[in-house]
Amino acid sequence: MTVHDKNAEAYWKANLRLIIGSLIIWALVSYGFGIIFRPLLAGIAVGGTDLGFWFAQQGSIITFIILIFFYAWKMNKLDKQYGLDEE
């Protein structure tokens, strides 16, 4: 295995960790907080409604947008780390 192959494998593993972590956060916020844990969050008021409903309606969308920017920022760092960035 060449140095290039090892570098490519390490880059791909880091990329997969980032993708899996982002998907776990997204699923937890959208499905977990919005549906599964909604009864537990019902007593917490946010903007005139309960927190579970807020996560189902706005929180999951806001989290998804934040994850998009986080993923882009982190991938730029990974690209620079492995010498794949655009200059």
Main attributes of the structure:
87 residues, mainly alpha, 2 strands
Q: Could you walk me through the main structural features you see in this protein, from its secondary elements to its overall organization?
A:
- The longest helix is centred in the N-terminal third of the chain and has 34 residues, at 3-36.
- It contains three helices and two strands.
- It has a two-stranded antiparallel ribbon.
- The protein has one domain (11-81).
- It has helices at 3-36, 38-41, 51-81; strands at 45-46, 49-50.
- It is mainly alpha-helical.
- 79% of the residues lie in helices and 5% in strands.
Blueprint of the fold:
Blueprint: H1 3-36, H2 38-41, E1 45-46, E2 49-50, H3 51-81
